[in-house]
């Protein structure tokens, strides 16, 4: 199977249509998806291996902010001292770098970042209690799944013979790690059979930690 990945649902749909025109029925053997859709597909099959129910809920930006506001209120942290937007951006950036709350807290931190680390820890605990994942978790937890479950990693590596990435300049460390694991690579091995298309002058996700 060929796994082709891009960043938006619109781009993925266009790729599917082009592939079908080019190769006809054989197009069904090409898995074309966004990173997040691919992660959802994998987690819906295997989330129980991580302690989640397969019917997990996906939190969008609004859900994230609501939960963060609840935590800030519990911790009696005023918005003027630490806004929900700042916390949300910090958590999203941490997940792009595969930083768990523990890893984030272990770094040299200033006072604000220490408070963010506390909120991040509580935030992840509540997500788990609610059987929920946010968008960052979709990638992070799929990486965790493949790292901790060799049988699942081997299954995808054996079935995904070639990986193709569109807009490669926008991949972040978490997404690159996912590609490495899906291709059968490990901590020190680069992805196998990886073909990418990208232009660093068109990078648009740097502000998201790409």
Describe this structure as you would to a colleague.
The protein contains nine helices and six strands, in the order E-H-E-H-E-H-H-H-H-E-H-H-E-H-E. Residues 205-210 have low confidence and may be disordered. The strands form two sheets. A four-stranded parallel beta sheet has the order 2-1-5-6. Strands 3-4 form a two-stranded parallel ribbon. The chain has helices at residues 9-23, 35-46, 61-74, 84-96, 101-106, 111-129, 135-148, 150-159, 173-182, and strands at residues 2-6, 30-34, 57-59, 132-134, 162-165, 194-196. With 210 residues, it is α/β, with parallel strands linked by helices. Helix 1 links the parallel strand 1 (2-6) and strand 2 (30-34).
SSE layout:
Elements: E1 2-6, H1 9-23, E2 30-34, H2 35-46, E3 57-59, H3 61-74, H4 84-96, H5 101-106, H6 111-129, E4 132-134, H7 135-148, H8 150-159, E5 162-165, H9 173-182, E6 194-196
Parallel strand pairs: 1-2, 1-5, 3-4, 5-6
As a percent range, the share of helical residues equals: 40-55%
Sheet/helix structural class: alpha/beta
Gyration radius (Cα, Å) is: 18 Å
Element pattern in H and E: EHEHEHHHHEHHEHE
Low-confidence regions: 205-210
Question: How many individual β-strands?
Answer: 6
The coarse silhouette is elongated
Main sheet summary: 4 strands, parallel
Strand order of the largest sheet: 2-1-5-6
**Mean of residue pLDDT?**
89
